[in-house]
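Two proteins, back to back. First:
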Amino acid sequence: MKKIFYLASSCLMAIAMFSCDKDSTEVSVAEVIVGSKFTGDTLKAGSSIKGTIPSRTAPYYMTGDVTVNEGDTLYIQKGVKIIVIGNQSSTSTFGQATNNPTFFIKGSLLVVGTQDAPVEFTINDNLKGDQTTLQDPATDPAFKGYWGGFNCDAANLAVFKWAKVSYIGGPWGANPPTGYSAGDPKYGISYLASKTNATLVVEDSYFYGSVDDCIRTQNVKLSIMRSKFAKTGKSGGEAINMKDGSTGDVAFNLFVGGATNGVKAASVSGTTHQTNINTYNNTILNTGYRQTKQGRGGSINYETLAKGNIYNNMIVNCHFGLRLRSPEYPDTTNIKYGYQYYYGATSDLVAEFNAATTGSVTRNQATDVKGGVGENDPSFKSFTLNLAAGTTAAPSDEAKRTNFFRSTDDLKLNATSKALNKGYTGFSPVNSVANLNVNGIFKPTVSNPGKDAGAYQADNSGNLQ
């Protein structure tokens, strides 16, 4: 198969400079530039942008919708911080349908940070509220939806590597694009692809606060690896919702406090573009409690004709466990699952390890780790597992609000954890992005299945957040 190389029409590379003395050699890293550098301070409403937004200490600002046109590439370098402020002549409407800036990607987007210098998209600090205490979802700023995220429906490629994206989900205004309705929340990353071979890669990134789905895809080749999702969905919505024709891998991610599921996969009846997703080695905590529709909300959900491998996921204090749903049956002939690691702090949670809700066809797997109330503590280095979850039909307010991390939280596993060596490694990733290579800027790193349950591996090969 031919490899796909994404190259800008004009790439300028600074030449690596060498300086030597008798004791040492210093090598400066070559800077890669796509097109021309953006030289302003503000991404202005109604503007088109391409080229490179360069690293700098000072933040950039975004006041309105910005478009990357067909055939163009926008490359955002490490350490860039973009503060979305909306229309400054109408600050009182920030977050409303007429004033929630959105990136519209019709070409290619490359957001490439590093662990030490991530790329950040956020709002001003005075709007964020207190992220360290329990919040009522009705008033929590995380669910305000101040800006519109990234609409990639017409894109060729979108890459998010070591990115931080927060406070997304502003509503569509009048006359939205086909497939959306006025007033509905925008998805954090919407990729209902209109182009063949559309590709999404998300690696080592952090998403905080979305009103509905944080990521929604359709007919996309994808890889979502080693990322963290918190407070996704106010009263519904998934962290990652993969629709008809999505193919790839979702692995080594952490999901905390999602309204519904961490991962959802579905095709449509009679499809010729079957959804094929491997979901493995994810850690899913305290999800499913804000979904207002009965029988929904949990951890992992496969629906109509979706297929794939589902292994090694750690599901802790979630409303429901793995759910294979009927009457909209997934492709159970081509779904393989097992080796999930379950923990429940209450009898209601334990009763729903198999998603016993009406419509689920999940079956017990001998390889799963399951026990009674409080059994099989995964032994995180630091995290409170006590949860007054209420009942399946009436989740407690605490469960609805326990969806954040404290500064002392650490979900790595202790050396005595029962989750060590509970994973299954006898399968391979789908790796639908194997042929992607953005020369000098980015190449995907698709992690193989891990031997320990969940996202955090004893050998540090999994999630690093």
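And the second protein:
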Amino acid sequence: MGQKMKLLVSPLLLLLLVMILLLTTSSSNSQSIIKTLPGYHGDLPFKLETGCVLHLHPFVENGEVELFYYFAESQRNPEEDPIIFNMPGGPGYSGLYSFAYGREGPLSFNDEHGLDNITFTLNPNSWTKVCFLLFKGWILYNIIISYT
């Protein structure tokens, strides 16, 4: 038990997963570079992009859903640093939690003064110090799903 476990992913499996994602995702015109946020004083000291990508989904009538994302650029060496894809799970769980309330995101969420006065501070231990972070947000359906 004293040994550290390493998770090894076959390069072939990784390539297959990337190909599936690329084949079921189309580009989107919905992307924005965010320079300021309410509750954070001044400009953000890192590059933050948000947007939606169109994704084909087998359980939706027209097959299309939009995936919202947050993308924070590495603050160390963007040309060489890796990308980590944070895909949270569970009902109602969004990448926003990991981005601003978890340990890995570039910001820390501060609600000490109540929900009417939320502020953000920089997370000194953010993973963006050494890598890019891509957080999956909410899934936005283009249609309303009804069960009959």
